[in-house]
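Exercise 7.
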Amino acid sequence: MRMNVSEQPGEVDLRPLSARSVVLSLLLGTHPPELPVKDLVRAVEPFGVGGSTLRAALSRMVAAGDLRRTDAVYRLSDRLLARQRRQDEAVDARTRAWSGDWEMVVITATGRGPAERADLRARLTALRLAELREGVWLRPANLIRPLPGDLDPVAESYTSRPDRPARELAAHLWPLGTWSATARALLAHIAGARHPADRLTAFAAVVRHLLTDPVLPPELLPEDWPGAALRAAYAEYQREIVGSMGR
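Solution. The predicted structure, written as tokens, is:
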């Protein structure tokens, strides 16, 4: 399994944000995820998005099904509400003390096409499972979340205790050193970012990186794991943004 991080440890993936990305970043971090157009105009201005550019982006986003509009209020579509839930879970993953058990998901369905296989792999990865070998996915059973019921027709789930030492197995399944180095690079970049657009771009990268955090039990993590620090930095930024919008 590979995470969606830079190939080189310590490099950060800072993608320039379009007007659409700015709007989505703001709404995904807002609860409830809706804003009147007048508030959106004010909110995006510090990020270099003008009123006419914003309105054109909003029209395209409504047509594409990203947003719904009621009168002059724009809100996330149901599809993006699911994305917001995943983002919220990435920032505030719910865990429990680890007993030593592992979740194991074994793919039982056959005859699936490439698109179906790719979609299933993406779903299992989003559930923070890692592939031990083809068709066998696992992780420590420390997350407070059920596996989706619609996986039942294609997979079976078990509780297991692998013979391989747990720390060794975790290090085999996840590139923990690479993840940690990129997280530290993001924290360093955030500390030096001053312009609002640069900060928003950096924190968008933080969210993408947190989505790939395996959220392992502390006893399986390297020393000085920066996951908690990255989550705290994003939570503080989220409060800052919400406060700037008067919410």
